[in-house]
Amino acid sequence: MTSSTFPNISISTERLVLRPLDEDDVPPLTEMMNDEQVAAWTDVPQPFTEQAARTWITEYAPAERAAGRGLDLAVTEFLTQRLVGVVQLTKTDWHIRSTELSYIVAPWARGEGYASEAAMATAQWLFGDQKLERVELRTAADNTAAQQVAQKIGCLSEGVLRNACIVHVRGDDGVRTDVRTDFIVWSLLPEDLEGSAEQLADTGQFTAFTDWS
């Protein structure tokens, strides 16, 4: 059986457009990835350079999509076209029809519900257009903001992967230390969306355009 791949896609909500990353995203992506919270909760190299951003956009993201492993989407404000964040799909299994979803939001855009809106629209598209049956999220044990997003879109907490995550804690001396912690595993199934979609009134209906160019 040949592996499946995600299409080049643009997803629109009331406030957001999710689209493939392009080279115009290099400066804002670089700035976002050097944020203190991103550095703490993710494994992106620090400091994150413009060359790293360009490699991600022009090499890594296209290769992941072509191989059927995942999809990287820029999340932008509909009105200003500013880069709000990134939604990533990884570890996609086309036999089980599951994928792992993660999200990063720029510091200036936090607190607006953008992560929930983007994650919900992506999940609706995955279950509808792509006929997936499971979306998985993993959040570090102390990352309450990421956990709130998972709860808001209707995910169920399935359990804990003990000692499976490394976070990067900056001490009083300014030096980062790797600290082991737990991953909380969340899942979202098509039937879970029915209730949560109504609660996320701000999301509105999403529109998907394939073969985005």
Describe the structure.
This protein is α+β, with helices and mostly antiparallel strands and 213 residues long. It has a single domain (11-199), classed as Aminopeptidase, CATH 3.40.630. Helix content is 29%, strand content 35%. The mean pLDDT is 91.
Tags for this entry?
single chain; 213 residues; alpha+beta; Aminopeptidase; 6 helices; globular; Ribosomal_N-acetyltransferase; protein-N-terminal-alanine acetyltransferase activity; Protein N-acetyltransferase, RimJ/RimL family; Acyl_CoA_acyltransferase; transferase
- The strand count comes to 9
Shape: globular
- As for the number of domains, it is 1
Order of helices and strands: EEHHHEEEHEHEEHE
**Main CATH class:** Alpha Beta
Low-confidence stretches: none
Strand content: 25-35%
User: Superfamily at the CATH H level?
Assistant: Gcn5-related N-acetyltransferase (GNAT)
Residues in helix, %: 25-40%
Distance between the termini: 28 Å
* Architecture per CATH nomenclature, i.e. the level-2 architecture: 3-Layer(aba) Sandwich
